[in-house]
Amino acid sequence: MEDLRNGSKADGHQPDQPKTNNSSAYKGLYQYAKPHLWTFLGVFGCIIVAIAADLLQPYLVKVAIDDHLTKGDKNANTLFLIAGIYLLLSVGGFVFTYLQNNLLQYAGQSIVASIRKHLFRHITKQSMSYFDRMPSGSLITHVSSDTETINQFFSQVLLSVLRDGLTLVFIIVLMFQLDVRLTLYCLILLPIIALNAIAFRSYMRKTYQMARTNLSRLVAFVAENLAGMHIIQVFHQEKEQQKQFSERNQTYFRSNLREIRTNVLFNRSFDMLGNLSVAFVTWLGGNAVLGHSVPFGVLFAFITYIRQFFQPINTITQQWNTLLSASVSMNRIWSIFDTVPSVQDKPGAAVDISGVKGQIDFNGVKFSYTDDQPVIHHLDLHIQPGEMIGIVGTTGAGKSSLISLLCRFYDVKEGSVTIDGTDVRDIPQEKLHRLIGLVQQEPYLYSGSIVDNVRLFDDAVSREEVMQACRLVGADVLIESLKDGYDTLLSERGSGLSAGERQLISFARIIVFKPKVLILDEATANLDSHSEQLIQRALAVVSEGRTTLVIAHRLSTIMGADRIIVMRQGEIVEEGKHRELLQQGGYYEELYRHSQGRIEASGKPGSGAPAIEAG
Ligand SMILES: Nc1ncnc2c1ncn2[C@@H]1O[C@H](COP(=O)(O)OP(=O)(O)O)[C@@H](O)[C@H]1O
Ligand SMILES: [Mg+2]
């Protein structure tokens, strides 16, 4: 164990590695294994029986040779009986090995399934700042392959240690039982075996890790390329990327070959040692048989055992790599479990949200993602229930950050954000998020039917309600034109629907879930002007009776707002109605002129609503 700890620390290629050591990782695993204690005991029992059944077979042959054949026993019945027992033993060995494997897999897979379940739940509870730090690729690895490696810990490492370890012990006991002197001679071989294993171990580990590292490089490269495929094609980078891929592919290929070569060499060296010892025993024991100090049957059994002796040692040594990667995986998973969400519900926060009207106040808010770079400086904004607020400003002005604070994806550094006078930090997140409906640039649709996408798989919402909502936002015509109408299955992320159609469906969600506050963050940025008009109409319906905040790329979306907030570098620089702001001739007017100019320059006046955002 001690050795192992050093091993995985030396690994060092995990930058976000936890400080948790292995003993606590295994302690954590033990918590998951505990409910399966009886299954593990069952496995242990099966292993004992299966090993006994396997190892008694040569012993039986020895009995047949020494007690009957060489004594000239003519009784065929006893031989028949022995053959029968032999058969029984091998059937028993088969049955119990089968049982043992199934039980162990059952326990291992159950443990891993429950770890995976908790892990996913834990990840979904993390605050947004956590996802800023953790690339989703590595989270996917943790949930999928790291948990699988833990399963290998059970199905390979634990099994091998138990089964092969016990087999070794049994073989040694049996050998001593057969002939002490011969056994002692054989044990001389042990140091040679150990030396061989040690010599190979570090080399095997190196080649193994090299292969893993090269594989993850390859995978990362592919992932990166897929994500940026349009850039690659637009800039004609295909050749260059193919070259780079080929290089990585070759490196992985070579390291894989090296790993395989090492493993084969190691296995064969064990075979060699096995053969050597058989020759050794044949020579020593043969002389003893000739000198009548050892019966022939004993020699036979001995040779069989010494052959069987090497297999388990070989297998156990090979578990080393699996054990190492299992420890690394476990540490990674446990470190995820150790992270506490930075945004948390106050204990005992029980607020009644049923009577909320939707008044929103930002009181002297200061905010930054990282400690040194303030994103919102000192912001006061007071919004009446039912008011519609438009928010404009160039990219990076802090509009989305403002929304994130209202949704409490992050906590303010100073000041407060309140809804109907209650600090959002005092409202349990679940309730807070029920109060707010957020529509973003790219609405998220799940694979499932349209009905389920609108009601978010909540069966409490009836089909009629869904249909009514879709009618209200004007999505009904579109949906009814689809092949299966409301039951049309959307593929992942709703591909197959246009951006505007997806947006309409997310609007229907708002109607169904009736949040008191509605937020649109660049919801119309991706739309053509026709879809935008549809959304515009839907917005008029959806915003009815709700406090609505609209961050918009296009002026037409917010021109009718009760009030427009103009943001610049984390501050509100102007506010008022569209007309007033234009008359004021300030920053807003400048933004407006820019967008007008852009439209004229593009030579397509009226082709879309004027965009006032540079981004
Ligand atoms: N998750 C984040 N981590 C760190 N910085 C961020 C993050 N999101 C936004 N920022 C920074 O905060 C500033 C405001 O961003 P944002 O609120 O998204 O602006 P807007 O929505 O107006 O375009 C920008 O400088 C941006 O780089
Ligand atoms: Mg934004």
Automatic annotation (TrEMBL):
It is a multi-pass membrane protein. InterPro entries: AAA+_ATPase (IPR003593), ABC1_TM_dom (IPR011527), ABC1_TM_sf (IPR036640), ABC_transporter-like_ATP-bd (IPR003439), ABC_transporter-like_CS (IPR017871), P-loop_NTPase (IPR027417), Type_1_exporter (IPR039421). It is found in: Cell membrane. Residues 360-594 form the ABC transporter domain. Its main location: membrane. One of its GO terms (molecular function) is ABC-type oligopeptide transporter activity. Residues 1-16 have a biased composition (Basic and acidic residues). Keywords: ATP-binding, Membrane, Nucleotide-binding, Transmembrane, Transmembrane helix, Transport. This is ABC transporter ATP-binding protein. It comes from Paenibacillus rhizovicinus.
